[in-house]
Amino acid sequence: MTAFADLHHADAPLLLPNAWDHASALALAAEGFPAVGTTSLAVAAAAGLPDGAAATREQTLHLALVLGSAPFLLSVDAEGGFSDDPDEVAELARELYALGAAGINLEDGLGPPDRHAAKIAAVRAAAPGLFVNARTDTHWLGDGDGTMRRLDAYLRAGAHGVFVPGLADPRTIAALVRGLDGVPLNILHTPAGPPVAHLADLGVRRISLGSLLYRRAIGAAVDAALAVRAGRPLPDGTTPSYAQIQRTGRQDGSE
């Protein structure tokens, strides 16, 4: 965990791009990102399943199997652990760590904070080397009420860092950073929110891209198909060659 934890305390915040398969993760790592996360929305969408419904445990473990030995640090978006049973969430964490994951992101989905704290404590006991990023959805699904109370509970349970997606107001972010007193705060980047440099000035230590890259990729694919159908030039953008994508394939042919 040390190398991944250290990225949260470096001179600049950890900018964590989120991949959805082997090729996207390797392409991001090739551009110098030392760590790559996964995105639960993309994992679910690719399998034709809903996000946030505890439906993609198998697919998440398979992606960790594919990426866990790659030459970058891997953080896995595991929704709420795919179970309300702390022991089952702990077993998931144990499997992810064995596959090579360096971190896990666990969201509370605005469920009871004591239940989420119990999951975090169980994960810490089962996989001590795994960096636990505890997410609260007070701003994502609510009005922000109770954010610090929930984060305090998760930190007491052993979380290494905390994640508050949906929070974009600079003053509120700065106040939360002060209240956390050195605990790494993770903020979800959005095109309409503060840019990376501003988030860094506010004291944010980790900036995730979430499903943004996946959604942009789907949009670009549809735009390209429409351009070809209409006889227009392809939209501006970088298109990797067949050979470049082929080189991201696993050399042993395994899955």
From TrEMBL:
Keywords: Lyase. Pfam families: PEP_mutase. This is Isocitrate lyase/phosphoenolpyruvate mutase family protein. GO terms for molecular function: lyase activity. It comes from the Bacteria. Gene3D superfamilies: Phosphoenolpyruvate-binding domains. The keyword Lyase applies. The keyword Transferase does not apply.
